[in-house]
Design brief:
The chain has 289 residues and is of the alpha/beta class. The protein has ten helices and ten strands.
Length: 289
């Protein structure tokens, strides 16, 4: 397989075939993200992609899922993406699910019919970084879209029959807008109603714009209790019809896996117990990206 630069995939794709069809991220402006700094976004050539599919056909027969790397494979023009997915179906017929990252820009560029075409060719899940539903914070972190755009693109993905996994960042708004961030994020998640939500706790990365703000004393990192309070407020304001709300990433202080709506009250009680010191939190040295 031909891999370039930093390879990133969701935790749930740990055992998937990783087919790199793009390098870097088409947006690459978020102040908190250092994943693709210094990398120029590009779509890999069809020859390389087809060669890697052929390699997977020979050596990856025990893996029934495939993830299209890197930061935003969905932005590939429709005709080329159809060709890639068709070849995956042809050469890797045992693959039951193809996944990809998707952002508001790539979802906006695809029509609903085009997304449905991709779904019919095996693209069954998309991972979208919302980070926050608070418009002021979205602007500050240079996400490139407001909350209503995020809602519209999330609903579009779901309407196409593609499962949606949304990532949010606890602590992303700092201390001053923690409450607004939590409530607004719950509102946006409720409006989209995705199948999965992954809540990560913000960890500031050296070399990013957010790190510079932190070093200058302009961005405070929340204390563990503040992180839990924000997470509890977010969950309390999130209403999913039948979704999984995960906060069990390595960055989180308190592992949570809740089915909403049925597990909401039990989860909020668990957070209250942790805030009262009755449930142990993950020590700082064990947290990681």
């Amino acid at each position: 397989m031909h891999y370039e630069g930093n390879m990133i995939r969701p935790p749930s794709e740990a055992n998937s075939i990783l087919l790199q069809v793009t390098v870097g991220c088409s947006h690459n402006k978020c102040t908190f993200c250092g994943a693709y700094k210094g990398e120029r976004f590009k779509i890999k050539t069809d020859d390389i992609i087809m060669e890697d599919i052929a390699f997977a056909a020979q050596y990856c027969k025990r893996q029934d899922r495939l993830f299209l790397c890197d930061g935003d494979a969905l932005i590939i023009p429709q005709k080329r993406l159809v060709k890639i997915l068709t070849e995956i179906q042809k050469q890797l017929p045992w693959v039951t699910r193809v996944g990809t990252y998707a952002n508001h820009k790539s979802l906006r560029m695809k029509s609903l019919d085009e997304l449905r075409e991709l779904r019919n060719l095996g693209l069954k899940i998309a991972y979208m970084g919302l980070e926050t539903g608070d418009d002021q914070t979205l602007k500050q972190i240079r996400k490139g879209a407001d909350s209503e755009t995020m809602i519209a693109m999330g609903k579009k993905c779901r309407a196409a029959g593609i499962k949606l996994s949304i990532t949010v960042l606890v602590g992303m708004a700092g201390r001053e807008r923690s409450l607004e961030h939590a409530i607004a994020t719950g509102r946006v998640l409720s409006a989209i109603d995705p199948e999965y939500v992954g809540a990560l706790s913000l960890m500031i990365i050296p070399g990013t714009e957010l790190w510079d703000e932190y070093e200058a004393g302009k961005f405070p990192i929340l204390e563990p209790e503040e992180v839990l309070t924000e997470l509890g407020t977010m969950i309390a304001n999130t209403n999913l019809s039948n979704g999984l709300f995960h906060a069990n990433h390595a960055s989180n202080y308190l592992p949570i896996r809740a089915k909403l709506p049925q597990d909401k009250e039990e989860t909020l009680t668990l957070i209250d117990k942790a805030l009262a010191g009755k449930v142990a939190l993950k020590p700082e040295w064990m947290r990681a990206l």
